[in-house]
TrEMBL record:
This is Protein-glutamine gamma-glutamyltransferase 2. Residues 417-429 have a biased composition (Polar residues). It holds the Pfam family Transglut_core. Residues 414-443 are annotated as: Disordered. GO terms for molecular function: GTP binding; metal ion binding; peptidase activity; protein-glutamine gamma-glutamyltransferase activity; protein-glutamine glutaminase activity. The lineage of its organism: Eukaryota, Metazoa, Chordata, Craniata, Vertebrata. The keyword Nucleus applies. Its EC number is 2.3.2.13, 3.5.1.44. The active site is at C277, H335, D358. It comes from Eudyptes filholi. PANTHER family: PROTEIN-GLUTAMINE GAMMA-GLUTAMYLTRANSFERASE, PROTEIN-GLUTAMINE GAMMA-GLUTAMYLTRANSFERASE 2. The gene is TGL2.
C-alpha cells in the first residue's frame, strides 16, 4: 500500500460551535465542551483510509509541559471500541478520500487551549501533522460533568446569557443596574485563558496548575483571587472606595465586563482602575460563564464586614448621632458576590449546588485575597469548618449589630436597636428581568427553631431584642421617592408603647454616604430637646433635606444616611433608628426605530432630562450591548445641558446576533454621574 497522505482537513468550527453552544464565540476557532463529541473531516490524496491497514492516532496536549500522568496529554487511536474513561476517536463516515471522525474528551478533562496532532501510519511508515488548536470548556449539559445543571432555562441564563441585572440601592429601595457580561464577545475567551495563565499558582508550578484545571472548585478559587490585584499579582481590577477616581474610571461608570477585561489585556495585565464589589463580582461572573461554569451575581443587603470574627458588629455613635470611628467592623448597604454551580466531591455529600465566591478583596484566605467557593448550604446550616471561608460569609448574612451611644462624659450606653443583617438577598430571575429573592437559601426564617439550632452550632448568640413590644419604638419613614435635584421629607415616627407619659430628646441627622457605610458631611439636622408622648400615642417629626445642602457632597452611590436618636430623660434609655435613603437619578429613555433584524441597520434614540437647577457640563453617553453594538460606542455632547433641558443623540448600529438582547446606556457629566438605562430588543434572524 502507498502511504496515506493527508492533504487538507476541516475542524468544522461552525457546526461544532452550534452543537456545543459556543457559536457566538465566532467561527474562527474551535471551541467545544467536555464530554461531548465533536466532528472533524480529513481529506487524503491518492487513496482513502483503509481500516485494518492504516492506523490513525491523535495526540491532544494542553499547558506548557504536557504529561499523561497529570491529564494534560493524551494519545489515542481511532477505534470502534473506545475506552470508557479517556479521550476517544471513532470513524463517523467515509466518502472516497474524505473521512469524518468524531472526537470526544472525558467529562472530567482539563479545560483550556489544546493542540491537536494526527499521526498516520501504514505498516512501519508514519507521519505526524499538527492540525490545529481547540479550546475545551466545562459542560453544564453533561450529566457527568461536575458543573452539570439539570434545567435548560437555568443553563441558558447562567452559562449562555451575556447580559443581566445587578441589584443595588438600599434594602428599602432596591434598584437594578444593567450589566453586559459579554462572555462570548471577541477576544474575551482568550483573555480568560490568559487570566488562568497569569495566576500565581500557575507561575509557581505550571504543570500542577494545569493538571488541576479539571476542577471547578480550583478554577473558582483562582478566579476569585485574580479579579482583584491586592496580592501584588497580575489581578484585573484595583478596588477604591474613597470617592477619588480621577486617575481611572469611577466604579459607577462601567456597564460591562468586556471593556474592563480588554483594558487589562491591552495594558499588559496591569490592574484596571477602579472596581467596587459589584464590578469585581460581575467580572468574575463573566470569566466563570465564559469557561462554562454556571454563575450569577447576588446582592446581600445590610451586609456585615466582621473583621474580628466575633459575629458582632459594634458601632459607636456620639450624642448627635454621628459615627465615632472606633471599629473596623462595617455594615455595607449592600455587598455583591458570585454564586457558581458545581459539585463538591472534596466535601461530604450534601454540599453540591450553588457555591459563594467573593472576588472583592476584604480578608485573606490561605494567605491570598480570595473567598470561596463556600457551599451556600453550609452557610445556611452553620457548618463553619468546611472549605472555604464559610465563617466570613456566615457573618455577612447573620452578624448582630450593636449600637453604642457614647455620652459626653465618655460612658457608653447600649441602644435597644437590633439592626438587621443579611436581608433581601437578590439575584436576577431566570429568563425574566425581575428580582429573585434567595435569602431562604442562606438562612432559616428569623426566630425559627432551625435558626436557633444553626446559631448554637456556629456558637453565635443572637441578641434577642424584640423592641416592638414594650417601651419606646422609633422608625424612620420616607413619604415618597427622593429624586436627584429635589428637596424631600423624612419622618421620625415615635411610638410610646407604655401606659405613662414619656419625655424625650430627639436628634435627627442626615449625612451623605457611600454604600460601604462611610459617611460624608451633614446635610440636614434637627434637635428637639422636649418631645412629650402620651401613653400609647404616636408622633411623627419631619425633617426636610434640601438639595442645596446635599447636592455638593452626594457621592456617586446616591445615598443619604439618616440617623435618629431618641433619649428618654427618666430612664436614660437610648433608641437608635437608621435608614439609608436612595436618591433616584433621572430615567434614560431609549427608543428603537426600524425593524430589528440581524445584519440590518437600526437606530436608537437616547435621551435624558437634566433634573438639576444647574447646567450639566462634559456630558457623555456610553452605549454597549453584546451582539448589538460592535464593542462600546461613546458620544460626547459639545454643549452643556441646561436645567430641565434634554440631552439626546441618535445611534446607528447593526446587530450581528439574533435573539433577545439588551442595549445598555451609561450617562456621565460633571454633576450627574453613573446614570444607567437599558432597553430589551428582540433581533429577528437574518432571512436565509
Amino acid at each position: 500500500f502507498a502511504d496515506l497522505v493527508l492533504e487538507t482537513w476541516d475542524l468544522q468550527c461552525e457546526r461544532n460551535g452550534r452543537e456545543h453552544r459556543t457559536a457566538e464565540m465566532g467561527c474562527q476557532q474551535l471551541v467545544v465542551r467536555r464530554g461531548q463529541p465533536f466532528t472533524i473531516t480529513l481529506h487524503f490524496s491518492g487513496r482513502g483510509y483503509e481500516e485494518g491497514v492504516d492506523k490513525l492516532t491523535f495526540n491532544v496536549e494542553t499547558g506548557p509541559c504536557p504529561v499523561e500522568t497529570s491529564g494534560t496529554r493524551s494519545h489515542f487511536a481511532v477505534t470502534d471500541f473506545p475506552e470508557e474513561s479517556g479521550w476517544s476517536a471513532v470513524v463517523q463516515q467515509q466518502d472516497g478520500g474524505s473521512l469524518s471522525i468524531s472526537l470526544c474528551s472525558p467529562p472530567n478533562a482539563r479545560v483550556g487551549r489544546y493542540s491537536l496532532t494526527l499521526e498516520t501510519s501504514t505498516g512501519y511508515q508514519g507521519t505526524s501533522c499538527h492540525i490545529g488548536d481547540f479550546i475545551l470548556l466545562f459542560n453544564a449539559w453533561h450529566p457527568e460533568d461536575t458543573v452539570f445543571l439539570r434545567d435548560e432555562d437555568e443553563r441558558c441564563e447562567y452559562v449562555l446569557s451575556q447580559q443581566g441585572l445587578i441589584y443595588q440601592g438600599t434594602r428599602d429601595y432596591i434598584t437594578s443596574t444593567p450589566w453586559n457580561f459579554g462572555q462570548f464577545e471577541d477576544d474575551i475567551l482568550s483573555i480568560c485563558l490568559k487570566l488562568l495563565d497569569t495566576n500565581p499558582k500557575f507561575l509557581r508550578d505550571q504543570n500542577r496548575d494545569c493538571s488541576r484545571r479539571n476542577d471547578p472548585v480550583y478554577i473558582g478559587r483562582v478566579v476569585s483571587a485574580m479579579v482583584n490585584c491586592n496580592d501584588e499579582d497580575w489581578g484585573v481590577l484595583a478596588g477604591r472606595w474613597d470617592n477619588h477616581y480621577e486617575d481611572g474610571m469611577s466604579p459607577m461608570a462601567w456597564i460591562g465586563s468586556v471593556d474592563i477585561l480588554k483594558r487589562w489585556k491591552k495594558f499588559g495585565c496591569q490592574p484596571v482602575k477602579y472596581g467596587q464589589c459589584w464590578v469585581f463580582a460581575a467580572v468574575a461572573c463573566t470569566v466563570m460563564r465564559c469557561l462554562g461554569i454556571p454563575s450569577r451575581v447576588v446582592t446581600n443587603y445590610n451586609s456585615a464586614h466582621d473583621t474580628n470574627g466575633n459575629l458582632v458588629i459594634d458601632r459607636y455613635l456620639n450624642e448627635t448621632g454621628q459615627e465615632d470611628r472606633r471599629s473596623r467592623d462595617m455594615i455595607w448597604n449592600f455587598h455583591c458576590w458570585v454564586e457558581s454551580w458545581m459539585a463538591r466531591p472534596d466535601l461530604a455529600p450534601g454540599y453540591d449546588g450553588w457555591q459563594a465566591l467573593d472576588p472583592t478583596p476584604q480578608e485573606k484566605s490561605e494567605g491570598v485575597f480570595c473567598c470561596g467557593p463556600a457551599p451556600v448550604r453550609a452557610i445556611k446550616e452553620g457548618d463553619l469548618q468546611l472549605k472555604y471561608d464559610i465563617p466570613f460569609i456566615f457573618a455577612e448574612v447573620n452578624a448582630d449589630v450593636v449600637y453604642w451611644v457614647v455620652q459626653h462624659d465618655g460612658s457608653q450606653k447600649k441602644s435597644t436597636h437590633s439592626s438587621v443583617v443579611g436581608k433581601n438577598i437578590s439575584t436576577k430571575s431566570v429568563g425574566r428581568d425581575s428580582r429573585e429573592d434567595i435569602t431562604h437559601t442562606y438562612k432559616y426564617p428569623e426566630g425559627s427553631e432551625k435558626e436557633r439550632e444553626v446559631f448554637a452550632k456556629a456558637e453565635h448568640k443572637k441578641s434577642s431584642l424584640r423592641e416592638e413590644d414594650e417601651g419606646l419604638h422609633l422608625k424612620i419613614k420616607l413619604s415618597e421617592g427622593a429624586n436627584n435635584g429635589c428637596d424631600f421629607n423624612i419622618f421620625a415616627v415615635i411610638n410610646n408603647n407604655t401606659d405613662t407619659d414619656r419625655v424625650c430628646r430627639l436628634m435627627l441627622c442626615a449625612r451623605t454616604a457611600s454604600y460601604n457605610g462611610t459617611v460624608g458631611p451633614q446635610c440636614g439636622m434637627k434637635d428637639l430637646l422636649n418631645v412629650t408622648l402620651a401613653p400609647r400615642a404616636e408622633k411623627s417629626v419631619p425633617l426636610c433635606v434640601l438639595y442645596e445642602k446635599y447636592g455638593e457632597s452626594l457621592t456617586q452611590d446616591n445615598l443619604i444616611k439618616v440617623v435618629a436618636l431618641l433619649t428618654e430623660y427618666q430612664t436614660g434609655d437610648v433608641v437608635v433608628a437608621i435608614r439609608d435613603v436612595y436618591i433616584q437619578n433621572p430615567e434614560i429613555k431609549i427608543r428603537i426605530l426600524g425593524e430589528p433584524m440581524q445584519k440590518r441597520k437600526l437606530v436608537a434614540e437616547i435621551s435624558l432630562v437634566n433634573p438639576l437647577a444647574v447646567p450639566l457640563n462634559n456630558c457623555m453617553f456610553v452605549v454597549e450591548g453584546a451582539g448589538l453594538t460592535d464593542g462600546q460606542r461613546i458620544k460626547e455632547l459639545e454643549e452643556p445641558v441646561e436645567p430641565k433641558a434634554e440631552a439626546k443623540f441618535r445611534l446607528d448600529f447593526v446587530p450581528h446576533q439574533a435573539g433577545l438582547r439588551k442595549l445598555m446606556v451609561d450617562f456621565e457629566s460633571d454633576k450627574l454621574t453613573g446614570v444607567k438605562g437599558y432597553r430589551n430588543v428582540i433581533i429577528a434572524p437574518q432571512p436565509k
